[in-house]
Amino acid sequence: MIPGWKEEIEGEYLEFLRKPRRLIPADFASRFDVSECCAVYWLTELARKGKVRITSVEFLEEGETPCSLLNSLSCRRKAFCPVEEMARVPVERE
Prior knowledge:
The protein is mostly helical. The protein has a single domain, classed as Arc Repressor Mutant, subunit A. It is 47% helix and 0% strand. It has 5 helices and no strands. It has helices spanning 5-17, 25-32, 36-48, 69-74, 83-86. Helix 2 packs across helix 3 (36-48). The longest helix has 13 residues, at 5-17. The chain is globular.
């Protein structure tokens, strides 16, 4: 990994988010050509650092992910999505 890569990406994202507007993770994902899962990951990271505010959430049914099917299939960076493993929740077997 290249030192400072994460900060460079975050800077690019923050520059985009700096313009006053409301958007959904799909808008962010589309702009940066990443999956919605990746968009949610980065937005959450920025919120944890106090750089953005998340003002809305939506409940997902068991087994759903933040990625819409279309966005997920078209994302060229899907293989590198940091949410992919974290999104899998073990299901209890009876």
